[in-house]
Design brief:
Blueprint lengths: L10 H21 L3 H6 L2 E3 L3 H4 L2 H11 L2 E3 L6 H14 L5 H6 L9
Parallel strand pairs: 1-2
Helix pairs in contact: 1-4
């Protein structure tokens, strides 16, 4: 944590700094991806209540990635992911690409 002073050491500034740091950390992984792959991305998918219920986290994510964030329409993302993985393993769904097409997302915000 850097840049703390008597003028900005407030709970609000500290929370915003953590949220910006989370977005920066995630963007670092994105930046490490091949440029050709990054260029194909049109939206940002997030999951869990951290992004679902916290517009203060959505803002730095969308700003850092320059993409709109979408969240799944279902609420139990981990359980759905486990079920889709099992379906792929069982052969009921042909591959993870097809499994991803089974996901539905909430309407975009704003």
């Amino acid at each position: 944590i850097t840049g703390i002073s008597m003028d900005n050491f407030t709970p609000a500034h500290l929370v915003c700094g953590f949220l910006e740091g989370m977005a920066a950390e995630l963007h670092g992984y994105y930046a490490a991806m091949p440029a050709a792959l990054r260029g194909r991305m049109k939206t940002l998918a997030g999951s869990g209540n951290g992004v679902r219920l916290n517009p203060l986290l959505v803002e730095p994510l969308e700003g850092r990635f320059a993409l709109k964030l979408r969240v799944p329409a279902h609420r139990e993302e981990a359980a759905v992911g486990a079920a889709l993985t099992a379906a792929v393993g069982d052969g009921a769904v042909r591959g993870f690409g097809m499994a991803g097409k089974l996901l539905h997302y909430e309407a975009p915000r704003g």
